[in-house]
Amino acid sequence: DQQVKQNSPSLSVQEGRISILNCDYTNSMFDYFLWYKKYPAEGPTFLISISSIKDKNEDGRFTVFLNKSAKHLSLHIVPSQPGDSAVYFCAAIDDSWGKFQFGAGTQVVVTP
Amino acid sequence: NAGVTQTPKFQVLKTGQSMTLQCAQDMNHEYMSWYRQDPGMGLRLIHYSVGAGITDQGEVPNGYNVSRSTTEDFPLRLLSAAPSQTSVYFCASSRGDEKLFFGSGTQLSVL
Q1: Between chains, do B100 and A49 touch, taking CB under 8 Å as contact?
Q2: Counts for chain A of helices (H) and strands (E), in that order
Q3: Residues of A in contact with B45 (CB under 8 A)
Q4: Stretch B3-30: mean pLDDT, rounded?
Q5: Which residue of A5, A99, A106, A107 is the best one to mutate when testing the B interface, meaning the one whose CB has the most B CBs within 10 A?
Q6: Which of A36, B62, B94, B110 sees the fewest Cβ atoms within 10 Å?
Q7: Are residues A105 and B50, on separate chains, in Cβ contact within 8 Å?
Q8: Within a 13 Å sphere around the CA of A39, how many CA atoms are in the beta-carbon half?
Q9: Each residue of A72-90: pLDDT tens digit?
Q10: Where are the beta strands (DSSP E) in B1-111?
């Protein structure tokens, strides 16, 4: 039973526009959330994270929003660039250190 | 600046064969883990370790063994390969601050 869900397997966006990736979770004990980016034939790389005590975290073009009451987080990429074309994974962890739960991923394609 | 190194990058096995996927990190991270990536399933945790001599099961541990004799190395053993173990395997490490560093992956096919 997946506790972290990314319901959109793919997203196509024009260069310069905003990309919005969504993630839902079911475990109310999750207290830390992360986004990873993955290119083909490479391992995932850390992008941005947010603690459950915050509702927003920003790093350059990337912003993560957390809505605890809805058990929902989103990643905004503004503006989208061709190099952002990748698979994005949402992940969550509770206080059982070591057991990260990942979503299924969203394939983002940024078109010129 | 190697980070997390996985070998081999590609492997083809026949059903019933055994093999070991190697993982080494040079960041002195206490935490190491193995994930498998399957289409539509995301990354699923197989086994993890919070330090040398300590291992625990993740979400999908059946058919896999691990050991952690040193801080640097965390090999994953397939005891008797099955077609259901065809997947991409990732090793990851962390110092415990909740950010995982991943290796580049091993693509395994079991025929």
Answers
A1: no
A2: 0, 11
A3: 99-101
A4: 96
A5: A99
A6: B62
A7: no
A8: 7
A9: 999 999 999 999 999 999 9
A10: 4-7, 10-13, 19-25, 31-38, 42-51, 54-57, 64-66, 76-78, 87-94, 101-102, 106-110
